[in-house]
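Lab notes, practical 5.
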Amino acid sequence: MRILQINSVCGFGSTGRIVTDLHAVLLSQGHQSVVAFGRDTARTCNRTIRVGGRVDQYSHAARTRLFDMHGFGSATATKTMIARIGELNPDVIHLHNLHGYYIHVGLLFDYLKRAKIPVIWSLHDCWPFTGHCSHFELIGCDRWKSECHDCPSTSKYPKSLVFDRSRRNYLQKMELFTEVPALTLVTPSEWLAQLVKKSFLREYPIALINNGIDLRVFKPTPSDFRQRYRLQDQFVILAVASVWVEHRGYRYLVDLAEQLSPDEKIVLVGVSEHQVKRLPAGIIGIGRTRSTTELAEIYSAADVYINPTLEDNFPTTNLEALACGTPVVTFNTGGSPECLDDESGLVVERGDLAGLVTAIATVRRSRKESYSARCRKRAEDRFDKDARFREYVELYEGSLK
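Output from the prediction step:
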């Protein structure tokens, strides 16, 4: 088979790693694989198509900021990519994140409708069926069920500073995205699958394929991390994000620091230089790392991993922590609780700081050692990337019949 994947990034971030891991699996099975991406540089992938460039991205971002036209810029870059698709003649096109200031969805979906190539679309958030936002759980908005308008989230990604075009975006997306004859949707969580069934995408078949991780990298990994940060006698509470913003639960971590005992420390990975300077006592801030080995060492050194996310789909960080033998405590947000069972972590109602404190205390009393083997087994049974990506290959093959 010849497979083309399209995503905003290639080789880093949760979706970027999914794309390149799947690319590697396809090559190992003798298939042809190419990844088209829009931002930064490609990592761990030697067959790529760059969609546009920085100037194009800045222009697309300007259209978004001024006119709320995210996904409807980058016309020239998209036409060039479509020409390359014609040259590649893929058997299957696998879409991932189409937002990210790099592609014109109108041109792309007009092409997909004409080309009649089987399309798989992995939904990593809610942007495909809203008029603006990628998540709406935090504000409890349900306009996407009927028709987006007067969007309360224009100040959030993808930010628009002037106009609210949410109604028109919604109607355009509905028209474009529902006319592809051979489209299968994939969601990593049952939570997102249930939302899709209430959206204008409801008529398409939906496959549930959990995100997978590399269990050869994310595994219990000894290191000198505790010694380097003087944490030998501390109970280490870990939280990881690519960027710490409101919907990731940053303020709950700051509030949690005020309730720690002297022998407890929070390690916060992914903070900016500005945030590091403002962290309260009790929190150690570490910048974003793109080294998966280093991440595995940090996960392994922690006593508990906490995810106070307020909006999420199926967070990969939960899976990485489990694979490293570290129990997870998460808010009951999106698909995050689906990562766990009763033996690998605890779920707390979203926004319940007292419940978060209690859950951490429960893990501490039980000791990490009582969870570790069960956490690792949970990851091996459910989140091995090789097994999950075989499901994708089977989906590709099924779409060609």
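Observations recorded by the TA: The chain has a mean pLDDT of 95. The longest strand covers residues 2-7.
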